[in-house]
Amino acid sequence: MSQAEILDPIKQKHRALWALGDYDVVATDVVSELGRTIVDAAGITPGTRVLDVAAGSGNASLPAASAGARVVASDLTPELLETGRHRAASQGLDIEWVEADAEHLPFEDGDFDTVLSCVGVMFAPFHQPVADELLRVTRPGGRIALVNWTPTGFIGQLFAVMKPYVAPPPPGAQPGPLWGTEDHVRTLFGDRVTDFQARPQLLTVEQFENAESFRDFFKKYYGPTIAAYRNIADDPERTEKLDQELAELARRNDADNGIMTWEYLVVTATKRP
Hints:
The chain has 273 residues and is an alpha/beta fold. It is 42% helix and 22% strand. The chain has one domain: Rossmann fold (3-Layer(aba) Sandwich), CATH 3.40.50.150.
């Protein structure tokens, strides 16, 4: 039985959302720098056994493999994994791609030296079970490294703007950008880690000529934005309002000047021996 057949309806919807558009275009054209950032933060060296959770098309997996690590990339969305396979093959990189739910990772306890997630697990609806799984598959003394969008940064603001236009989340779900707050991640990991560090950083984005070009790019390629528009497709007035609000958000963040800065949080921690 495939992963898709055993997923509950919540996860099926989540997987379908990230199959919309083409997230790989976002990953490669806009946020590729984040993959290199997390690999550096984790201190990955040749021979390190690495798991990239919610890896998408490999934004962190590929630079980790390029650094000499033995990489397993897992994600809920098979379309993104297939893209990642092609990207890895074109670069001559040997990466294992595994379809997996971040709440139920199909790996043994302590199987990895380093566990990563680059703006990935933050979008799983239930945070504590994901944090528990990240810790479970990390060996004692191993490293965990995360890059997450912050609630107050641009992408956090983007999700706040889109919230009124999307279907309500499942009961008990928590907002993804909470992973971009130090206190929340500390609480999720608790006393099971040491050497916890959380550092806000800025991604410089220069790909968009103006606010409208940002909006149109995300309408075309970014699954959550596409889903928001589909949810209101039969309401022209709300569609026009969302068009305006997304452009205004980008304009407030200097899109018309051609240089935007998107805040994210880099978290690193060591699993207690």
